[in-house]
């Protein structure tokens, strides 16, 4: 069993205390192997009994068993250089890709590619950083000839979701799976018959309830939520995969080349 995958998979079912334990463990895996349950409880602000219950909830027999399993899932350590920033950033991206690769089912990618090709119009919902990722996705699809729009304004999401039809495809991006504006808009779009897709980090999150197709990507906050590094990297990796599959289509590839030539010849 991959214990890291299991923690993310059932994260939304944890209590607040259990989420605190999960966050600490995921962000401090190296120090966990050298700490006992009493000291860990003090650091997190909980009890040893709560940590033991958490360990059993994620499929371990005990706290010691959990430490052993965490050790067996350790990512390859990068040799540190004079400036740790370079090594740290490399390790961060490497782990996000490896963990996201484990979570993504390629059959789901082929399924969403089919839906993209069938849709009359494609609408992408996302706010904040997810909205910026949605705009990147829109740019790529536009250059392949799709009729696609990215909406990051909450009022415009509501308006758009109320008029979509069963000929449309709506994609909601929310790493937490709990972005209220995106959830409500995706629900309304689905009620109007649109095919819905969500990209999130947590199975059984609120957004997944209103999605016909669900993508789960690795949540970067489990590596380090305090560093100012791209929180959307796992979604961008998924977007690259979808784009590459789409470009296997001869017609879509041709349109992409036409747009590249148009841009080059314009300067």
Automatic annotation (TrEMBL):
SIS domain residues are 112-249
Q: Does the keyword Protease apply?
A: no
HTH rpiR-type domain span = 1-77
Q: Which UniProt keywords apply?
A: DNA-binding, Transcription, Transcription regulation
Task: Indicate what this protein is called per its UniProt record.
Answer: MurR/RpiR family transcriptional regulator
């Amino acid at each position: 069993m991959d214990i890291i995958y299991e923690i993310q998979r059932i994260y939304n079912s944890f209590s607040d205390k259990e989420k605190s334990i999960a966050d600490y463990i995921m962000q401090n895996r190296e120090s966990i192997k050298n700490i006992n349950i009493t000291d860990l409880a003090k650091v997190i602000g909980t009890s040893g009994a709560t940590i033991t219950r958490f360990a059993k909830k994620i499929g371990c027999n005990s706290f010691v068993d959990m430490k052993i399993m965490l050790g067996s899932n350790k990512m390859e350590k990068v040799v540190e250089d004079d400036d740790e920033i370079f090594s740290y950033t490399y390790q961060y991206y490497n782990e996000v890709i490896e963990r996201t690769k484990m979570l993504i089912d390629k059959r789901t990618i082929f399924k969403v590619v089919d839906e993209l090709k069938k849709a009359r119009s494609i609408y992408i919902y996302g706010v904040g950083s997810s909205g910026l990722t949605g705009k990147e996705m829109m740019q790529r699809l536009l250059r392949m000839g799709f009729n696609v729009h990215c909406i990051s304004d909450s009022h415009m999401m509501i308006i758009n979701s109320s008029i979509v039809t069963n000929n449309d495809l709506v994609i909601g991006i929310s790493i937490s799976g709990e972005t209220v504006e995106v959830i409500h808009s995706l629900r309304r779009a689905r009620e109007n018959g649109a095919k819905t897709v969500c990209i999130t980090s947590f199975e059984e999150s609120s957004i997944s309830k209103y999605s016909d197709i669900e993508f789960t990507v690795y949540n970067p906050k489990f590596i380090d939520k305090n560093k100012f590094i791209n929180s959307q990297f796992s979604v961008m990796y998924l977007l690259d995969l979808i784009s590459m599959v789409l470009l296997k289509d001869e017609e879509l590839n041709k349109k992409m080349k036409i747009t590249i030539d148009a841009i080059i010849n314009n300067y």
